[in-house]
Input
Amino acid sequence: MSAVAAYFQNIKEATASIFEGLSITLSHMIRKPVTIQYPDKTAKPVSEMMPERSRSWLRVEMDTCTACLMCETSCPIDCIKITTEKDSPVGRAMSQFDIDMAKCMYCGLCTEPCPTGAIHFVPEFERAAYSLEEMISRFIPEGNYVVPYKPPKKEKLEETPPASTEAPLQS
Amino acid sequence: MEQFAIYLHENFFYQAPLWMIKAAVQVGFASIVLLLFVSPFAGILSFIERRIAGRMQDRIGPNRVGPQGILQFLADGVKSLLKEDLIPKDADKPLFILAPYLVFLGMFTTFVALPFSSKLIVADLNVGILYIFATSSLTVVGLVMAGWGSGSKWSMLGGMRSAAQVISYEIPAGLAALTVLLLTGSLSMQAIIKAQGAHPWQWFIFDNPFTLISFFILFIALIAEGNRTPFDLPEAESELVSGYNTEYSGMRFVFFFFAEWANLYIIGAIMTTLFLGGWQIPQSLYNASAAVANWFPQVVQLLFFQIKALVLIFIVVQLRWTLPRIRMDQLMSLCWKYLVPIGFFCVMGVAVWMLLFPQGVPWMRTFLTILAGITLVYYFYRVYYQIKASNAEIQLNPFV
Output
């Protein structure tokens, strides 16, 4: 292509591409914005918009908690604090089940060993507070006692050894 | 105003001559009116641009402060006022302080010669368009001063780029304006508008093919002079932090941005005046509005002027979100290899055209107007096609 032809080709291409570009931007201007105006205007409640199995707050169903302390021992940063009393007015009972959500790192290690699935994540995450005290989830009101849940005996199931889920270590 | 000047003369400044006080009062009055017009206009323009930009990127834009975010610019202004006014240790202090005011002055004095309606103009100078080009060049001095005075390499580079860019693009801008001046035979802004008519085929843009081309040349050159994207190399944030205003904070920084938004309006106003018939309204509309009140035609004219200017401003804003920033060598080659030769060609073309057809060519005006109409229809068809092709959901309501 000669220099003159290239010169006019440049002008033509620039004009055509700017024209096309302007039509694209104008078409985007009249499109519906994809923005979700999060706290104010959401199409449905935020907890429904969370993905399945999202890790947010921890909740403990106190009527199925066996007070086995598995969650407390498995927590890598010790943010779960459970106190059990042997000689409370209602016998052996839990007097305290606190989870410090300010410390919690949402690893989910406490939900795995729980024998009854009492401790689990809920799809809610909005938790701003003015003090660290408010960030502590207290599942037993102060002065109350909760009798641990006793699972019904399943003799036959107990006898079968659980299938190993982990591959044996090879030397 | 006259009485106020006499009152001042009798009670306070009896030593100064009366004419001097009269002039001072007039200047003061004009500046207050202009400032009251320019400041909110620039602010609201910044809000509008941010909203348009938001929608073009499929988001919403500022909508928190006031109804639909209209007070966002006030919030930004107040925030900037409360910021610390930093002057760098290595800065050239007098230049650093003076620079924003020069930029602001260069922009602000341009408003003096802008014809908003047949009577609404601060001063109909007989060198109007020359005055506008001259004063808007004062901005460059301010920008270079800011770049040098900051004592920072980013600012320095931004200032130098700005100087190179603005000085280069003055030439095509001048050449493109020259085509109109040839047709009018006058530099006065009002005379330029009076030489045109109210209808599109009476505008200078459709007078002949050469003015049509020089319309686009002037448009590109003014965008480049205003340091707008795609020519925003002086403040290229991805490479120069923020260019010449890197070291500025608080209100001094706002001055630069204020000048930029006001400059956006000046681009629209100059283009409207030179090529799009300015405030001209059809005679029937003039008579109808004159029947309402004596001053009402002025309002209608002002409205027409603003609508034309705002359409152009919209295109400038749209270009900002359409085109990527061009490179420095591309910037220079666009100016010197494309705009300047084509500009000269257009000036010669218009001169020859006027020699051959002293009365003008009516069919050419009609043809060019129809051509523009067809282009516009095709443009909207392309917009329709883009939406259709992506099955997008349309929301025309700008209030979300």
In short: Residues 18-56 of chain B form the longest helix (39 residues). Chain B is about 70% helix and 0% strand. The CA atoms of residues 145 and 182 of chain B lie 35 Å apart. The radius of gyration of chain B is 23 Å.
